Amino acid sequence: MKIATYNVNGISSRLPVLLQWLQEAQPDVACLQELKAPQEKFPEQAILDAGYEAVWQGQKSWNGVAILSRVGKPEMVRQGLPGNEADEQSRYIEAKVKDIVVGCLYLPNGNPVPGEKFDYKLRWMQHFHQHAATLIQSGEKVVLAGDYNIIPTEADAYKPERWVEDALFRPESREAFQQLLAQGWTDSLRTLFPEETIYTYWDYFRNAFGRNAGIRIDHLLLSPALAPSLTGAGVDRFVRAMEKTSDHGPVWITVADGQ
């Protein structure tokens, strides 16, 4: 099974790019972030015509997450994180696809630092940690896929010194990511490519994509029950090179069936 995550940065304006990617890359499951569209404006028919069924949680102008599947309709498990019901931002949904639990997340950016937005990021991550631990304890096959808005290490940024005061690279953010891994989650791309330069986001400015001046903030974390099935991973850079595209590239993994 091929599972992907893609921050589309506005599904309405990026729909042609999204549909072309789905046709060319043919992921079995695709987690989308930053829909930037209310619930009723999700292009369900276009997605169906492309061969995918979907569940989603929209939000006007901001945020929004979706899970697409071409191997059976995703069965929605939850919207939002347990214990965080007061949060009105659409940042997390979870669905079952075949025998895999798929969590799709858009973790808060957190800038500027210091400030309420960074405090919100850290609070959100505390709830996420608690839920992630519960998923580990379930023993199920789980993938937590999305835009984490965290640069895990210096190796994940073109010039890490430029990010030291940014919420994506603050010590608190990186430590929170390491705490997730310490629960038993596997960082799929780094497991397969421990030394390679891998980026998933390139700014629109200063020819960042042309210079490959990027950062790695889109991740697929695998539970201990699923990690042994990991067979491949990559970033679809060709999508970032398309016209009117997102500033993120789709990230994908393949896992063996029946493992």
TrEMBL record:
The record marks D218 as: Important for catalytic activity. The lineage of its organism: Bacteria, Pseudomonadati, Bacteroidota, Chitinophagia, Chitinophagales. This is Exodeoxyribonuclease-3. The record marks N149 as: Transition state stabilizer. Keywords: Hydrolase, Magnesium, Manganese, Metal-binding. Residues 4-248 form the Endonuclease/exonuclease/phosphatase domain. The record marks H248 as: Interaction with DNA substrate. The active site is at Y106, D147 (proton donor/acceptor), H248 (proton acceptor). Its cofactor is Mg(2+); Mn(2+).
